[in-house]
Design a protein that fits this description.
Layout (H helix, E strand, L loop, with lengths): L2 H8 L2 H30 L4 H37 L3 H36 L4 H16 L1 H16 L4 H23 E2 L2 E2 L3 H25 L15 H33 L3 H37 L3 H28 L1 H8 L4 H15 L2 H16 L3 H25 L6 H24 L14 H13 L2
Antiparallel strand pairs: 1-2
């Protein structure tokens, strides 16, 4: 057992969380720079072009979410097998998951490419936006395969506790994207710019290079996972098992994607100022989520490895400490945001006093409950990492379908709050879902699932978990 594994399985929990969490947070910050770079340069083209990108993103995110559950299954199993000391199983899982994710990406990307015109028609896109949106979608769906492969590489590396290599790759590709974006969008010299499609093409090039780097690293085997070409021969039994484990993850992420689309329709019914305020508030929330997501991903790796090592008690201690950090850390950030709300909104929209006032109201209503997000993300990460994907799925369905959207609709449409009712739905959801998820975690049934036992079948475990949760 090397020093890193010793720390993860037996050392200081605080040190382990920091060793994993800080690089993951840096990776998340850099990955968010992809979207910021695209938004910066596309914004120089005009409002119609910005709308073309905005309308395309939720649709492509939904398609990616459908296949992402399979990637989750591979990351969970690689972490648990690493904790169990079964390196051959780590390699096998990595190869089969890469194969499965690649095939899934080809199918979903092809379907998305063909259905793009129908998506845009269904969304009622204006003629001025339609052409650019279709081009952006087509290139994005072609690039789905590279997004999937690199995301899988990153998840598998995180599962075994290796975060430095993905950080280096992301750093290089973000810098490259920053150079390629203006070149492909506006052109240079005799090269004619491609407009909105250029932004999607720049992302496709950088993601394909990242995916290629990931595959080469796996084949060389110098960083914890060793793949050979023969490893990619399909193991249909594993693929069947991973499907049972990963399907709830796909439903979970799809539910969150649908939730974003439905909330966008509700927000749009209140007009331009509300849409702009919601957009700014969502951007602020995404920035706040970056450290919280980094912490939750660290929890996922540590819980997965400790469950694989047969130590569910330490897995619970990791989750408890991380949840406390998330609660206190995001509550502090929320307190700062409360006092600087106008400045945060003005950073994005400096010249519109009405939007600044409305956006600041949105931030102030929800920010003091951000600690609940930290708790929820850490507990859900523990559920996933232990193999209880159904728990995570049910939390997402409860959050989006039972709490947030109904609260937003009722408060905004059937009370005097108006669009402020949408803002209050965020605060209500943060508190209610945090309490429910932590109570479920404290109940302890999630600790009984260990996927790496040889006498267990993943499909059987998933089915039994579904029956058990349905009986509560």
């Amino acid at each position: 057992m090397n020093a890193t594994q010793q720390l993860f399985l037996h050392g200081s929990i605080s040190k382990a969380l920091l060793k994993l969490g800080i690089p993951i947070i840096l990776i998340n910050v850099l990955q968010s720079a992809y979207q910021l770079t695209d938004a910066f340069w596309v914004g120089r083209l005009g409002a119609a072009q910005v709308a073309a990108v905005s309308i395309s993103m939720p649709v492509t995110f939904l398609v990616i979410a459908i296949g992402a559950g399979l990637a989750m299954a591979g990351a969970i199993l690689s972490a648990q097998y690493m904790g169990a000391g079964q390196q051959d199983k780590v390699n096998h899982v990595a190869a089969q998951t890469m194969l499965m994710v690649t095939l899934t990406a080809i199918v979903l990307g092809g379907i998305g490419y063909m259905l793009s015109p129908y998506f845009l028609t269904l969304l009622g896109v204006e003629d001025a936006v339609y052409g650019d949106a279709l081009k952006f979608m087509h290139v994005s769906f072609i690039g789905v395969i590279f997004v999937f492969i690199y995301a899988m590489f990153q998840s598998l590396m995180r599962g075994i506790g290796q975060t430095k290599v993905p950080l280096i790759i992301v750093s290089v590709t973000v810098l490259l994207n920053f150079v390629l974006d203006p070149l492909f969008i506006f052109g240079y010299g005799s090269f004619q710019g491609l407009g909105v499609m250029g932004a999607a093409l720049a992302t496709l090039v950088t993601q394909s290079l990242a995916a290629l780097a990931g595959v080469i690293i796996f084949l060389r085997g110098r960083h914890g996972i060793q793949l050979q070409l023969k490893s990619f021969y399909p193991d249909w039994q594993y693929i069947k098992q991973a499907f049972f484990l990963g399907a709830p993850g796909s439903i979970e992420l799809s539910a969150r994607a649908f939730g974003l689309i439905i909330m966008s329709f509700l927000v749009a019914s209140f007009g331009t100022q509300t849409i702009a305020s919601y957009g700014v508030g969502s951007n602020v929330l995404q920035m706040v989520m970056i450290p919280a997501m980094g912490l939750s991903m660290a929890v996922s790796t540590l819980v997965g490895q400790n469950m694989g090592a047969g130590n569910p008690k330490r897995a619970a201690q990791i989750t408890q400490l991380a949840s406390l950090w998330g609660l206190l850390g995001l509550s502090f950030v929320g307190g700062v945001a409360y006092y600087f709300a106008e400045h945060l909104v003005a950073f994005f929209i400096p010249d519109d006093g009405a939007v600044i006032a409305k956006g600041a109201k949105f931030i102030r209503i929800m920010c003091l409950t951000w600690g609940g997000i930290g708790v929820q993300l850490c507990v859900v990460a523990a559920f996933r990492a232990s193999g209880n994907m159904l728990n995570a799925m049910l939390v997402a369905l409860l959050s989006q379908g039972v709490v947030q959207f109904p609260a937003a609709y009722i408060l905004s449409k059937h009370t005097q709050l108006g669009d402020h009712g949408i803002w209050y739905s965020f605060a209500i959801t943060n508190v209610v879902i945090a309490l429910i998820t932590y109570a479920w975690f404290a109940q302890g049934s999630w600790q009984k699932t260990i996927l790496t036992k040889e006498d267990k079948d993943i499909a059987k475990i998933s089915q039994e978990a579904f029956i058990e949760e349905g009986s509560h």
